[in-house]
């Protein structure tokens, strides 16, 4: 059967940075480890990556997520990170105990409305607590209850990207139990080109017409907050 194909691409190439961080096509900054701030949120069942999960999950700040709001999954989607708390910015005298958890990124914390924690931009790459990265840990899947000490809802500390084989959870099928979105694989940041999402969304429209398939593919990319 004939297969008419229509394709529209508006994706850009991937850039690099001499300091070792990965700067994607849209200017998103993505590191395999560093310091971060942590908060919690609820209502995680419709994440920006398009796939929810039953294990510990988190939203990551927009500058690291790799996509603008409304443009689909970014390069951070499906990556797993070990998070460790070490201080409470609101209670500097608090010394713990602290703990570590491993989360999978399934959502974005956008700049708009979240300037305190997720306001990192290309021109101002740290938030109000001096952190380049922020993880908003999902309450619904239990991660926040394990990570945050009783009475403390915000922490600072460190993160390290890890293999998703270390993550305990399910996200609807084996194809997404590894790093990245369904069927994709990638080395940890900043190696290689990453997960291949890179701030784009893939919209496929299939229609049956006169015993022929019509496939239209749109791939568009956002840019990092400036």
TrEMBL record:
* InterPro entries on file: Expansin/allergen_DPBB_dom (IPR007112), RlpA-like_sf (IPR036908)
Show the Gene3D superfamilies listed in the entry. RlpA-like domain
**Residues covered by the Expansin-like EG45 domain:** 46-169
| Protein name per the record | Endoglucanase V-like protein
């Amino acid at each position: 059967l004939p297969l008419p194909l229509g394709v529209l691409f508006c994706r850009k190439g991937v850039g690099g940075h001499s300091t070792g961080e990965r700067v994607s096509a849209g200017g998103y900054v993505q590191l395999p480890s560093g310091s971060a701030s942590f908060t919690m949120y609820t209502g995680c069942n419709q994440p920006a990556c398009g796939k929810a999960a039953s294990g510990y999950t988190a939203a990551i700040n927009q500058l690291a997520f790799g996509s603008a709001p409304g443009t689909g999954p970014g390069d951070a989607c499906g990556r797993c990170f070990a998070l460790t708390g070490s201080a409470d910015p609101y209670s500097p005298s608090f010394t713990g105990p602290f703990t570590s958890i491993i989360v999978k990124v399934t959502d974005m914390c956008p700049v708009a409305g979240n300037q305190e924690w997720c306001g990192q931009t290309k021109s101002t790459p740290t938030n109000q607590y001096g952190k380049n990265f922020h993880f908003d840990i999902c309450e619904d899947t239990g991660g926040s209850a394990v990570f945050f000490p009783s009475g403390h809802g915000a922490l600072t500390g460190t993160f390290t990207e890890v293999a998703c084989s270390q993550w305990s959870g399910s996200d609807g099928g084996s194809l997404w139990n590894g790093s990245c979105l369904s069927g994709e694989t990638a080395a940890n940041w900043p190696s290689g080109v990453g997960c291949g999402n890179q701030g784009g969304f893939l919209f496929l429209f299939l229609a049956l017409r006169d015993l022929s398939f019509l496939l239209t593919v749109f791939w568009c990319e956002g840019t990092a907050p400036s």
